[in-house]
Design brief:
By secondary structure, this protein is an all-alpha fold. It has a two-stranded antiparallel ribbon. Helix 4 packs antiparallel against helix 9. The two termini are 31 Å apart. It binds geranylgeranyl diphosphate (GRG). The site of geranylgeranyl diphosphate has 16 residues, from helix 4, helix 8 and helix 9.
């Protein structure tokens, strides 16, 4: 398997998702290595749908770099692709808990804690996060010091994105802004809303693209380009998420809509209005495209994926 050479974005999405779906199950521990109940709970959330945007970004960024070097991209990128989906799924499980967003619908199905209880949902999320880094350290299994160096660099990027300076830090600010931390309420301004989104959702999206580029052996200037591109796409993703919370269809989204307004949460639509929020998302895509042009990376799936992120209805 030398790369992902699909002819259209649709076939790239289908082909890559097929590789990812198989690998997600294969890379996750099962009995007798872990309790049956934990295995079932992790798989309930992980294998229960989802767009697989973050794994797609890992593979697309790796492919964008590998086109220039002929690297065996899938073998190198698939563990990172699955690891970011493990982390994303853990964040959804924890976010749905009563102590956070308290939601009962996710990916079109009852949330994990409503099926298995809060304790198992917390532990399944914890396990998915740990397994993500165990996987990135373990695979691809190679004695090549260059591959080891790429793995360490990718682990560092993904770990920062998942933790205090990334997703968890952003979630803390989100809880404060939603008035859910007694004595620590926070009023967000447009710049602090942007900073919160860049951490909460943007960081893992950026790290997915960067992790794929790192695993494919990108040069420093290419890494800088993918870093800036991933930041724009991450922000666009969250702005669109805010828009879909207002005008999206709950059945297509597989989750509850209208929650931000009901919770009086500051969002791009509440601060700027729908039309300006749409223009801001489109401006992110324009800037993302300019970065690819500047770095000669348009011969890839990255442009089409950025457009898909803006146009998505789920
Ligand atoms: C609990 C540590 C912790 C963090 C949670 C990102 C996050 C922080 C929570 C997710 C809550 C949420 C719905 C955020 C809005 C943006 C988002 C991440 C939506 C879901 O991602 P998609 O659309 O979901 O990629 P699928 O199901 O397609 O994978």
């Amino acid at each position: 398997m030398t790369g992902v050479r699909s002819s259209t974005l649709a076939t790239f999405l289908v082909d890559t998702r097929a590789h990812v779906e198989g690998a997600l199950d294969r890379f996750l521990p099962a009995p007798p290595d872990c309790p049956q109940l934990l295995s079932e709970a992790m798989r309930y959330s992980l294998l229960g749908g989802g767009k697989r945007l973050r794994p797609l970004l890992v593979v697309a960024a790796a492919d964008a770099i590998a086109r220039r070097t002929g690297t065996r991209v899938l073998e190198l990128a698939l563990p990172t692709a699955c690891a970011v989906e493990f982390i994303h799924t853990y964040s959804l499980i924890h976010d749905d808990l009563p102590a956070m967003d308290n939601d009962c619908l996710r990916r079109g199905r009852p949330t994990l804690h409503t099926v298995y209880g809060d304790g198992i949902a917390i532990l399944a999320g914890d396990a998915l996060q740990g397994e993500a880094f165990a996987l990135m350290a373990r695979e691809p299994n190679s004695d090549d010091p260059a591959v080891t160096a790429r793995k360490v660099a990718a682990i560092r990027v993904v770990a920062s994105a998942a933790a205090a300076t990334g997703m968890v830090g952003g979630q803390v600010v989100d809880l404060q802004a939603a008035g859910q931390v007694p004595g620590h309420a926070l009023a967000l301004t447009p710049p602090s809303l942007r900073a919160m989104h860049l951490q909460k959702t943007g960081a893992l999206i950026r790290a997915s693209a960067l992790g794929g580029a790192l695993m494919a052996g990108a040069e420093p200037s290419q890494l800088d380009a993918i870093d800036r591109w991933g930041t724009e796409v991450g922000l666009a993703f969250q702005i669109v998420d805010d828009i879909l919370d207002v005008e999206g269809d709950a059945a297509a989204l597989g989750k509850t809509t209208g929650k931000d307004a009901a919770g009086d949460k500051p969002t791009y639509t509440s601060l700027f209005g729908l039309e300006q929020a749409k223009a801001m998302a489109a401006a992110c895509a324009t800037r993302a495209h300019a970065i690819l042009v500047e770095h000669n990376l348009t011969d890839s799936w990255l442009d089409a994926i950025a457009d898909w992120v803006i146009a998505r209805r789920n």
